[in-house]
Structure formats: C-alpha cells, structure tokens
What we know:
Blueprint: E1 3-7, H1 17-31, E2 35-41, E3 59-64, E4 67-72, H2 82-102, E5 108-113, H3 116-126, E6 132-137, H4 143-148, H5 155-170, E7 173-176, H6 179-188, E8 193-196, E9 217-224, H7 231-237, E10 243-250, H8 254-263, E11 269-271, H9 277-284, E12 289-293, H10 305-311, E13 316-319, H11 322-331, E14 334-336, H12 342-350, H13 359-372, H14 375-383
Parallel strand pairs: 1-2, 1-5, 2-4, 5-6, 6-7, 7-8, 9-10, 9-12, 10-11, 12-13, 13-14
Antiparallel strand pairs: 3-4
Amino acid sequence: MKDILIITSYFPPEIGAASNRIFHLADGLQKRNYKVSVITPLPNYPTGRLFDAYRGKLKQTNKENNITTHRLWIYATVSKNKFLRLIAMLSYSYSLLWFFTFNKIPKTVIVQSPPLLVAFTSMFLLRSKKRKLILNVSDLWPIAGLELGALKKGFSYRLLEKIEHFNYKKAHVVLGQSEEILTHITSIFPEKETFLYRNYPDFEAPEIKYHKQEGKLQLVYAGLLGIAQGVLKLCQELDFNKIEFHIYGSGAEQKEIEAFIESNPKLPIYFHGRVTRKELHQVLLQYDIAIIPLLNRIYGSVPSKIFEYAKLALPIIYFGGGEGETIIKEHRLGWVARVGDYKHLNSVISKICYTEISTTFKEQIKEAAICKFDFNTQLDQLQDLL
C-alpha cells in the first residue's frame, strides 16, 4: 500500500469547490488502495472563524473514511486587510514547518495551490531527490489577483511571481484544472510534466425531475458569496420581469446581499443561507436554471459548478468568460452571456422559454456529464503519474 500525503488549505467540514475537490481526490485514492493522509488547517472557511467543535485547539488528528486528517493551528480571518490575510497564511505555514520537523513525510506528496505561500512552504521544505512532489494548481496566482484587483504590479507582485515559478520548478508533476493553467506553466517551464485534472464531481446522477411550465423562471445561484462572483451586482442588475432569483451560500458579500434584499422587498430575490452539499443537490433539482457568474474574466479559472450542475442535469447560464464559456458551448450545457455585460445577460435570459428547458435537454446535459466529466476515469489516468 503506497503512502500519499495531501497538503491543502481547505477540507471538509469546510464547504466550497476547493474542499470538495481535495476530499474527492483523497477519497478516490484511498478506494484505490492508497494510504492517504491530509494536512489542513483547523476548519474556518468561509466564515473566518474556527468552527465551534475546534475552538481552543492547537491541532487535531482523526481518521474518517480511511483518511488520516491532521488539522493544524491557523490564525483564521476573512478580513480584507492584506496584512491580516498574510498573517493567516504565514500562521499555517508555521504550523506546517513544525509538522514536517517532527513527523515522517511520505515519498509522494500532493500540494494544493493557491495559497501561494502555503504551497511555497511545502515545496521548499519537502524538496528532495527521493520525494515526488505533485503541485495541484486550481487558480493562477498572482495573475488572478491582478485581474481581481486585489494586487497591483510592483515589488510584491514580482515577489509572488518568483514564488509561483519556484513552486512550478520544484514540482515533478503539475496538475492544472484548466488548459489555460497548463499553457501558462509550460510557457515558463516547457519541459514540465503536466496533467489536466478538472474538478469533476463524484456522486450518482439523480433522476431528472419534472418542472412546471408556467410562471417566472426560477434562477438559482449556489456557492461562495465573494467579491469575484459578483452576486450582489447580479441582484442590482438583473431584470426581474421574467425571473425570480434564489441564492444559497455565504461569504464576504452576504451581509450586503441581505441588506439589499431587505431594502428592496418587492424584488423576487430570496436568500436561503448555507446548506450542506448533500442537501444542496436535492434543493437544486427544484430550480429551472443555475447561473455561474464571475465579476471579471479570470485567466485560468474554470468554475467547478459547471461539472456539478451538468451532472444534476441543471441547465446553466454562464456569465464568466474564458475556458468555462467554451465548455458550455462545446457540450451544449446551456447559455452564455458576455462577462460583465449585464444588458446582454438580461437579453439572453429574456429569450429563454420553458419549452427549451425540456426533459430531452436535461437528459442531453446529464449524458454529457456522465460521458465527458467522469471523475473515476480521470483519477485512473492520474494514477499513472503517482
């Protein structure tokens, strides 16, 4: 039985795409007879506060689903203050340093990036000719930070670029969730071995449910309510003549969204809060269309919701540009609106009618997900690199 260590900043019971991606990777590997261990911070995402069950602890080790999980201390915050966010990343890096010093580390290690500094700590301290380091890149930093407006070009940006390049250089294999990510990496290190590892879901596709064929279209958003997603902007810009808008999740914009709904009681916007992923899958089946927005196009980003919603046979309006837009069009998963163009988004929505959201259309979406976005096929191919 081969030992594999996964180092990540997100893991259940935390919610979100990053947490789900790493859990399914760990669970899939242990089902293939690998001895899997995970290092992760004490749960705190996305609230920025340690979950109640973990407060007052410096670390905790437990075993669930045959996965040994080491939860380490972190200074938890979701503050927009860059200094505090840096402290949070450095605190986890400090915990990793202590863990590496006093524990035996397997010969194969998968490191999640971003955060860049956490990945750098792992790649720097664990580099060895006898150890295989696999870097799993889900977003391109610092490029994404620049496009989101969180970073500006200057000394700190150049420093982060050096850290980014160091991480790629020390990795024996780089996994990327998009073709754009892999193209970026091979432009820097042409000989680097890479593998396209998308965030495909690992659950049984449910039966398709019948939907009403009258009234307003029920549009749903589910996920992180962060600045990048721009859900508050959607609430402000959507034309509600034909739709009602349902929101699930939590994050930095939550209070502003709730305040907007309270101050505009006549708008058909409904905030349902946060639910578990299992509950969400059942809830989503009652809606007509899901929307996947990004406030700005982010190079390298492919929202994992595309693959999850497809497996739920839920038609998608994609409002994020880039590679995700190509996937929606290629596999006919729904509709595309130009990123940042709310007039075009409203125009696209206004032309959708119930006859388009047919059982046949949903079956076609589900079939595409099963055939093209299969988690187990992808993981079987990844095994050859481990």
